Each structure stands twice: as C-alpha cells, then as structure tokens.
Amino acid sequence: MVRYLFLFLVFVISCKEKVSINNNTVKGNILYDEGTQLLQRNSVEAYSKFQQALAYYHKEKDSSNISKSLICQAIAQKQTGDVFGAETTLVDAVGFMKDNDESLYSLYGNIAELKYDQKEYDDAEKWYNKALAQKIDSVQMRYNVINSKAAAEYRQGKYSSAISTLQEIDFSKITDTKLLNRIKENIVYIKWLQNKNYPANKEFEKILDSKLKNQDDWGANSSYSHLAEINQQSNPASSLFYAKQMLLTAEKIKSPEDRLEAIGRVSLVDSPSNFQRNFLQYKTLSDSIQNYKNASRNRFAYIKYDTEKKETENQRLKINQAEKENQLIRQQAALAVSVIAIIIIIVLYRRRQTLLKQENELKLKNDQLRISKRVHDVVANGIYQVMTKIENQEDFDKETALDELEFVYEKSRDISYEKSDPENDKKDPKEKISNLIASFKNENIETYTVGNESEIWTGISQSAFNEVYQIVRELLVNMKKHSQASRVVFKFERIDHLVKIQYTDNGIGVSGEVIYKNGLTNTGTRIEAIDGEIIFDGKSEKGLKINISFPVS
Prior knowledge:
Blueprint: H1 3-14, H2 23-38, H3 43-59, H4 63-79, H5 83-94, H6 104-117, H7 121-132, H8 139-155, H9 159-166, H10 177-194, H11 201-213, H12 217-230, H13 236-252, H14 256-269, H15 275-392, H16 398-417, H17 422-425, H18 429-438, E1 446-450, H19 462-483, E2 487-495, E3 498-505, H20 512-517, H21 521-529, E4 533-537, E5 544-551
Parallel strand pairs: 1-2
Antiparallel strand pairs: 2-3, 3-5, 4-5
C-alpha cells in the first residue's frame, strides 16, 4: 500500500544535490529530473528516462549519479511489481557506491523494502539497521526508516522489540502529519497483535479521521485494512463495511494491489452467496496484475536492451570512425616520414659529396705538402749537404761529388715514384745521425754529438726516426745558412719512454718570426707527426737553444 512512498521519498532526497559539470552531465540531469516527475504517474516511462540518463552518466564515469539513477529505476520496477528485477538493479547500484556515499542509506532502505515485500522479514530488518547506521540528515526520514524496521519486527512476531523500536521516536519532532499517523497506527496494530482484546477500534478510527482530514487516501486505505482485520471475527458486518471502503478508496487512488487486498477481505466476511462473484473478481484482478507485472518486466528489459544496443552501436561507429582517422593519420605519418627520409638522404648525400670533395682537396694538399717536404729534405738539403762537403774538402774529388749528386738524383726520382730506400733504412740510426752531424763540420764550424747511443733509438719506428733525422738535418741546414755559428752541439737523452734532443749553437740567434721565415715550418709539422714537442729558446744572450722531445710508443 503506502510502503512505496518511502522509496519515493528516498529518491527525492537522493536527487537534490546533483551538480552540473559538463555537457553529458547536464543532459543526464535533465533526463533524471524528467524521470522523477514521471515516477508516480508512469513507472515504465520514468524507468526509460533514468536509463537514458545512465547512458550520459556512464560516459563521465559519474558513479554518484549512476547509483542514484539505478535506485530510481529500482523504485519504478518495484512499483510495477517487478520485485526481483528491482533487487537486481539495486545490486548493480551497490557496485557504484563509495564509502560514506550520501545515497547509501537510500540504497539499504530500498533493499530492505524489497525484502519486506518478499516476506523475508529477518533480512529486511538487517537492511533497515544498515540504513540507520548511515548518515541521514532528515529527522523525518530517519523516523520513517525506524517505523519500517518496527513493521519488519512485528511481522516476525517480535512485538515487544517492535514497540521498543518505535519508542525511539520523539513525536514532538515529527512535522509530517501523515508520517505521525502511520507511526501511531503501527503502535496500535502491534498492541492488538500482542493482545487481541486490546481496544484498538477507537484508536484506529481516530487515526482514520485524521488521515481523511488531511486527504491522505493512501494512508486511509491502510486504516480501512486494519479495521477490517480486527473486526473480522468480532463484528463481521463492520469488517465488511471497512473492506468495501477500502475497495472504493483503492479504485479512487488506482491501486490494483489495494483493490486485490480489499476484495480478499470482502470475501472473508461477505455472504456465501457472493462467494463466486468475489472469487471471479479476485482472480480476474490477480491475473490482470500479474500480466501487467510481466508486461512491465518485459518492457523494462526491452528498454535496457534497446538503450544498451544503441550505445553499443554508437561505440562501434565511433570505433570505426576512430580506425579510419587512425588509418589516415598513419598514412599521413608514413608520407611525412618518407618525405623527411628523402630530404635527409638528399642532405646526407650532398654532405657526403662535400666531405669527399673536402677530403680529396685535403689529401691533395697533404700530398703536395708531403712531396714538398721530401723535396726539401731529400733534394734541397741533400744538395746543400753535398755543397757543404765540397766546401770543407781541401782536395776536391770530382768522382765522389758526382756519386753523391747521382744519389740525390736517384732519391729525387724515388720521390716521383713514392719509393723508399730499404738499404738506407737498414743502417744503424746512431751512425746515420752521427754522420749527418759530422758532415757539417769544417774549418769554421765545429760540431759535437753527446749521448747518441744505440739505446736512444731502441723501439723507435722507422717512420718516426726518418722524421727525427730530417728535423736534425733541417736544423743543421738552417744553422749553416743563417746562424753564423762556429760551434754546434747536439745532446741526446732518453728517460724511460721519452727521447730528448737539445740543440745549441753560439751563433747570432733568431726570433720566432725569423724561425718560420728560415724554412723551419716543416720542423713543427714533423714534430706534430710523432706527437712531440719543440721549443725554440731565442732569448739567450748569444746563440740559439732548441729543445726537442717525443715519446717512444
């Protein structure tokens, strides 16, 4: 009868604090509000509105509004008699609830109502207790839950417990007259159940008058039912009167369930001659209600299926569209990568061509420099060395001079063919250095060699020795040409893997600028080639000092 009103009240409170966040939530809220307006007039249409709202809430993963919408759907299902469907919907709502959710008491209260309708009063009591354990801001709402819990208790025959539960209520705080009448009626009914001699008739009639004055037709139907029940044995005529009043009121408020109950109560006390008529009326209405429940259950299922099907189709279309867009993006990306790759290849190719050109030019310059050095070392210095010997000899030997010039000529030819002199490479490094230095000695110049031992040259590669040999010869040539020295000393020293050569003369000395103008540029290049170091000390009061060092690998 009036129990569904509790469900509706819970729903109203649950929907008060919805906050619009975005477009989907706004659309969902509009449908949600439309559903609440339809809930008392058309449960099926209300269910459809909530289902549409759910589709928007799911897009935002709005668990709070999802749970509230599911609770409202359960109310719609329960109102049409789809108790099991309502229970399944509430179980779904549990999955979206969070700790301390403001709708928890509403969810638990609705589950309790469903258990009550299925006559599972013990379970109903437990769920009412869970609802009361939650925060309920409205005093009226809490008292409503307490009143329902007491009903579940007296249905189990726990009359004293039910009375104790109702005594928790402070009547002075109740502002809702309809709620106050329901609670008072429950107290009277429980006392009558405890003691069938309890004078409940007058108290029920008083409560009925209050309900009629407040135009509470749903509440009045409950009173008519109780009055018909308590007078059934003691005053059948009075019981029949109240049962018929209940039937009239049920027709007025369009409550098939109340009509069915009223016909049942009429049948219990009506004349036996009316039994068949009452039975047919009862059966016809019962079948009609059951058919309505079945039809509603099927419509609920279809609404849910249709909505989910549309959502699935929308998702499929979105996925197809996304796949097309992704394919286009991949094609564009592939094209972009191809273009970039082509550009990179072109850039790298041009850079490679530039590098090859630069390498070839550098190689050409290095070849030119190397040949220039060899010409300078072999031809120029060689000829100058021959000239020095001729100059220093008192008896000129034409054949010897020609041999030495021929040697220089052959060496110059070797340069053009890039040939080395293996026989010359086999000579003792110590001897070659000593002979080279001694060849510049004459009546005006004294040359001295200090420390030129075989150990100095141990482990030195042929190419490194050749560079050192040319450095020494270049120093001697420049000394002969420019220094005006009469005394030249070469000092050789080796410390572990480092060879040190010190050159000193007593000539006029040279500045750094003069050094590179006097043909010693190649000397620095040669030193770099063997990772060595050369230091010109031109600041001496007289003469020149040069320190050379290089590592032995």
